[in-house]
Specification:
Layout lengths: L13 H5 L5 H37 L8 H8 L6 H45 L4 H44 L4 H6 L2 H41 L9 H11 L1
Helix pairs in contact: 2-4, 2-5, 3-4, 4-5, 5-7
């Protein structure tokens, strides 16, 4: 590990360092080993929290649809279907929202807070590093982590707003007995549908921003690891374990 010391410090020769100097430079070296290791632990905790947040985000989207909300919503809005079938789909979607989706939204909100605390921990551990160079690198990693957390927070706010609009759309369809004509004549359904489409369009750039920030975070950590022989720790989050089980099966 190469030690960067302030210019005012006494320069210790390589031979003296190798001989086992017990001066302040050696102490600083040892302290940075400990602080860097604690930073690495905090980094792993953030990645675990980030993977959980990503899993929740994906579960709330239309591609995963773990409890059939999006399938039922699509059926309720199908203009080629009959009123009674659209009504049945709308009631199914309402049940999925009330019983499952609302709880997942609450869990996602809690995970955004977990990410926020993980970022704070990263900044605290970064600031404890003695080396100016390594501290700057660690702080940059923490800044990338904040970008990831901020993206998830923005995304959650939009997803939550969109889901509430979808819930009102379903009420409109039920109140119209499954008739889209009657529901659209009430005007509220069109306004809600237009707003949900607008929100969906806003979500993709946020997801892209999060992906970019996460990659920057990992690249910067890899660079720091190369400079310091930094330890890395295995992810243990539930979504990570689920992914590994699928890969092994």
């Amino acid at each position: 590990m190469r030690l960067m010391t302030p210019a005012s410090f006494v320069v210790v020769s390589a031979s003296l360092f190798a001989a086992g100097s017990t001066g302040c430079t050696s102490d600083l070296f040892n302290r940075d080993q400990d602080t860097l290791d604690r930073f690495s632990h905090a980094y792993t905790d953030f990645l675990d929290a980030g993977e959980t947040a990503e899993g929740l985000w994906n579960s709330l989207g239309s591609e995963k649809d773990p409890f059939g909300f999006w399938t039922a919503l699509t059926g309720a809005l199908d203009p080629g279907s009959k009123d009674d079938l659209r009504l049945a789909y709308a009631l199914t979607a309402i049940d999925a929202y009330d019983q499952k989706m609302i709880h997942m939204l609450q869990t996602e909100a809690q995970q955004v807070d977990v990410l926020d605390r993980a970022v704070q921990e990263l900044f605290e551990k970064a600031n404890a590093i003695q080396s100016t160079e390594f501290r700057a690198d660690a702080a940059q990693i923490a800044k990338h982590a904040r970008e990831v957390q901020s993206s998830f927070a923005q995304g959650h706010e939009l997803v939550d707003r969109r889901s509430r609009l979808q819930r009102r759309m379903l009420d409109d369809i039920v109140n119209a007995g499954g008739s889209l004509g009657r529901a659209f004549r009430a005007q509220s359904l069109k306004v809600e549908l237009d707003e949900t489409i607008k929100i969906s369009d806003e979500l993709q750039p946020i997801a892209n921003k999060s992906t970019t920030a996460m990659q920057n975070l990992k690249d910067t950590f890899s660079a720091l690891k190369g400079k310091t022989n930094l330890k890395s720790y295995e992810l243990k989050g539930s979504f990570t374990l689920q992914r590994r089980r699928k890969q092994q099966s």
